[in-house]
Amino acid sequence: MLHFPEGFHWGSATAAHQIEGNNVSSDWWRREHLTGSTIAEPSLDACDSYHRFREDMQVLVDAGLSMYRFSIEWARIEPEKGFVSQAELAHYRRMVLAARELGLEPMITLHHFTIPQWFEDEGGWRAPDAVERFAFYTQTVLPVLEGVEWVCTINEPNMVAMMAGGDGQGTTLQAFGQPGPDVNVAQTLLEAHRACRAVLAEAGDFRTGWTVATQDFQPEPGCEEIARDYGYHRDAWYLEMAAGDDWVGVQAYTRTKIGPEGPLPIADGAELTLTGWEFYPRALEDGIRLSHEMAPGVPVFVTENGIATDDDTRRVAYMQGALEGLHRAITDGITVEGFLYWSLLDNYEWGSYGPTFGLVSVDRTTFVRTVKPSARWLGDVAAANALAV
């Protein structure tokens, strides 16, 4: 058995736009419904988790998991600039209280990709007052966060900057062949993250950080410098900028091999997931080690790790391999606070319901939840705080 440290957190993660449904004031909702949109299908009702959040939390508890990372939706809380919905603040407060009542430790994400339509209309993260607007939003949601310990400021700012550097119009988030990031947007996101942390530090005893999509850029022989240069502004810089934070989130799924000209296609015959990514559980260990290298001493939290597959036995195999690698990193002295599987539900994966990452399936018509064996497997690991090998 591989034993994990006492107090290690086990749970799962979701994002508001991907599960709530009818997030009509967000930039993504508008993109989904534009004439000629490249987005395959709109989110619509998603998983109806806006109304079924307690049911979803109960699924976690019944599976034996003890932490739930979920996001609160800026576009609902501030649907028009300067107008704050007290009803939506109360809704998200009820979510926090429900988690506590059920014995779940909440980790709250303040920004998970979507922004209000009005904010995008004013330039989004390129707007001159973007940092101030995010700080205002942070101040606004403080009543939701009362009693919460773990807060994620911004989810995957590297992906946000890369989408800003590319067309940003519904492109599936892929590890292979990503656009170069907009470095000005990246700097603004960093300033927004720090402004958010400052508001939270003044308001209470929060443990704050941001999460980074680690890409596991692996050089072919002789391409080490090329891989470092390619990867630095796509993930390593964001880990480096976490220095001084309370923790940094690692979100790992697959690897990207780098040759003389940059990213290489996935090798013929490699096992692929429903997103077209290579089945590569060791990406998690590599992401943890990169984080430790770039921000020594900052605790790592695995805030996302998972696989899109319709074969639940492969989901279990993927988690087994990923957790073995995570344990190797801990054995080598790296502090890892917990593991959150992505995702709790088969949800809206930024353009399509096709890639099924969930520990729980959701009927697209009735919204009935069906727990998969992988959820119970992970719950058993959590109950033992150990992994059988």
Automatic annotation (TrEMBL):
Listed EC numbers: 3.2.1.21
Offer a single GO CC term for the protein.
Answer: cytosol
Q: List, from the UniProt record, the residues annotated as the active site of this protein.
A: E304 (nucleophile)
Recorded GO molecular functions are: beta-glucosidase activity
UniProt xrefs under SUPFAM superfamilies: (Trans)glycosidases
Catalytic class of the enzyme = hydrolase
Species = Sanguibacter gelidistatuariae
Q: Name one Pfam family in it.
A: Glyco_hydro_1
Single GO BP term? carbohydrate catabolic process
Protein's name according to its UniProt entry:
beta-glucosidase
Q: What are the entry keywords?
A: Glycosidase, Hydrolase
Q: Which family does it belong to?
A: Belongs to the glycosyl hydrolase 1 family.
